[in-house]
Design brief:
single chain; mainly alpha; two-stranded antiparallel ribbon; 2 strands
């Protein structure tokens, strides 16, 4: 059956049959489209649920990242407190206990001591005969033995 207008039959019954067949094809196509529309609505509902899950998981990830940053900051603070550089505090009144010449002598002595390298060596203790470490290096002359 062609849809060309020049080949249409002259018989009314044949034309009715052609229209009925075409209506059946259209009805089947509409049923398929309706089924697809129903599937699309179902898929949209699933997509909406998944988007809600993704949103909630995104919020959880952001919270965890914020918590991780806080923990990193706490760790850094604790490490700075434990191992960070410390300033020795000097009472300004203590400096008046020494004369400027004595302070200059102490500074020279400290500089000289800081250049000496102390290397631990293994030695036997005379009292216990155990092996242990002993530092090698010169003691400052002002330090009591």
């Amino acid at each position: 059956m062609s849809t060309d207008g020049s080949i249409l039959p002259d018989d009314v019954e044949q034309l009715k049959a052609m229209i009925a067949a075409r209506d059946a094809v259209i009805a089947r196509r509409e049923a398929v489209l309706l089924q697809r529309d129903i599937e699309i609505v179902g898929h949209r509902a699933v997509i909406a649920q998944k988007e809600m899950v993704i949103t909630s998981l995104h919020d959880v990830v952001e919270q965890q990242q914020a918590k991780l940053e806080r923990v990193h900051e706490q760790l850094a603070r604790l490490l700075r407190e434990r191992y960070g550089p410390r300033k020795e505090r000097v009472d300004p009144n203590q400096l008046t206990l020494f004369t400027p010449e004595e302070l200059a002598e102490l500074i020279r002595e400290l500089k000289r001591i800081s250049r000496i390298r102390f290397r631990p060596t293994m030695v036997r203790c005379p009292r216990t005969s155990r092996w242990g470490r002993q530092a090698q290096g010169a003691w400052p002359t002002s330090h009591p033995a």
